[in-house]
UniProtKB/TrEMBL annotation:
Record-annotated membrane-spanning stretches: 348-368
Gene Ontology molecular function terms on file: ATP binding; protein serine/threonine kinase activity
Organism: Glutamicibacter ectropisis
Positions of the Protein kinase domain: 19-286
Amino acid composition bias (Polar residues), ranges on this chain: 423-433, 543-575
Gene3D superfamilies: 3.30.10.20, Phosphorylase Kinase, domain 1, Transferase(Phosphotransferase) domain 1
Top-level taxon in the UniProt lineage: Bacteria
Domain PASTA: 377-443, 445-512, 513-582
Comp. bias regions, Basic and acidic residues: 410-422
Compositionally biased intervals (Pro residues): 627-637
PANTHER family documented for this protein: MITOGEN-ACTIVATED PROTEIN KINASE KINASE KINASE 20-RELATED (PTHR43289), NON-SPECIFIC SERINE_THREONINE PROTEIN KINASE (PTHR43289:SF30)
Bias kind Low complexity: ranges: 591-624
Gene (UniProt): pknB
Protein name: non-specific serine/threonine protein kinase
Amino acid sequence: MSEVEALPPGLPRMINDRYEIESLIGRGGMADVYLALDHVLSRKVAVKVLRPDTATNPMVVNRFRREAKAVAALSHPNIVAVYDTGELPTTEQQHERLPFMVMEYVTGKTLKQVISQDTIDAEFAVRVARGVCDALDHSHANNVVHRDVKPANVMVTDAGHVKLMDFGIARALDNSATMTQTAAVVGTAQYFSPEQARGEQVDFRSDIYSAGCLFYELITGKPPFTGDSPVSVAYQHVGEIPPAPSEIAQNVDPIFDPVLAKVLSKERDDRFQSAGAFAAALEDALNGVEFHEDPAAPSTYTLPIYGNHDSTETGFAAQSAPLTSEHPVFAANDAPVETTRHRSNRGLIVLLSLIAVVAVALASFLVIRSIQADAEKRAPVAVPDVKNLSEDDASSLLRDATFNVRVEREFSEDVDENKASRTDPSSGTQVAKDSTVTLYISEGSEQRVIPEDLANQSEAAARDALRQAGLEVGNVTREDSATIPTDWVIGTSPELGSKVKAGSEVDLILSTGKVKVPDLTGMTLDEAEQVLKDQGLEKLSLSDSNNTEVTSNFAPGTIARQTPSASETMEQGGTITYDLAEAPPEPTPSDTPSESPSESESSGDSNSESPSETTSPSPTQSQSGKLPPPANPGEGN
């Protein structure tokens, strides 16, 4: 994988703001190894990240964490150093936290590659064994047992240095070449010890046995036992003696045979008791010094069954035997001698009986204690209450209670977001140790409140506010508004402040920026202003067109005509032009005709009127419009 290629989903390019991933350099059964640059110390490092398909196995994850921390405490030139450990955060693509280790970057070949490519001489094999044994001595001194010493876990650098790596980590999922017990990997079949094959507890001498298998393969080209399956190889480790290396390869000096016979002993006590002692024996054999088993040291003191003890040893005054002139053999029938022998026999019987009773009592105690310990180990444990704790605190509490943790997320009405809402099984339930408990983390309430402050906001601001509230924008409609600017929010559907389900769609109602014009005709200016105020149309203004309209339909001084007319729409802040009503002018009355003197005299002399006289119209008649028609030209009165 090159720098330009995309990393696997969930793996960031920069880890802890320090380690920049550059390329993939190795892939194992449970983890991938990447070459990275440490920006703090400006050096190349190897970052081992647990693969996502194995991160769901709690046993693998816990073993990775535990042993990574244990190996990080080791510091030896023959051990690949571990600089840092941690966990990658969860992502949308990866829901499990992936543990990782930052290790020393070593260039070279594994010992497995060296064996398959080259013929190895005895000097190189002893040098490699010395490096491996020095690394094991250091780890054993720090109470760390490797349990998977094999050629694939030994690096030979380009400079020829030997580096031991993968302290019990890479072995966890190599199912094709490992034996397991109660789902725990105990080693690689071709290199593990008889006690590992029997499923017993291992110790540092198991690593020494594996180192012997490794050296056996170095000088012969193949491991001491091979078979069709790991099980068949395991049976050979338990019950068969491997052939001598000199019988397998003719170029192997027989001087190495007794050294390997001892290191590959079935019983731990018969092997070398330290890796350094094994390496020293190999170096002696390389230099021509044969290995001989040390004879068992004789006992320095044996308690005699018969006779008396020296008073200087017992601290008590020993009673002297009576003097006699006869040889003790011939005096065997004497009563005193027989009495002493009978007393000694009775004392021996009593002593043996007491020893037998104590042995039976001790064995019974050990059996009962073993049964109790096994019962305690299988005893169920109550699931702790983790509600309202953070994810890290809740996970740590569950792991401390010996449980494996799987994290799920759900909505909760009574628990804050990113807090533990519940567990499955529920808290207080008695569950077997090492069981998997599902931890549920709250994503907050599923009900979302439509923000009430969306009104009088821009469309973009309203969309952002809804998205932050966990809601989606639905349809967008528009309505006239006298106060809300164009394309700003008037309201929503459902209404502002109402509760809806998370992820629901909310329709937006936006302003068109226009106003429906009210009908102001027949109103005075003060009344029209009040109507505009009551309807929230203060932004509309009235403007006199300087025109009047003569009409009898409206009272003088009221609005007789407006532009725009009622029910039309206009932009906010527009102007309504009006014409005021004016009363029609009153008609002018006709003049009264003058009287002639003769007529006056006649009228004075007589009370009768001339039939030809006509009376002038009264003002009432003039106002009602009933006036005489005008005279035609040429006609007389």
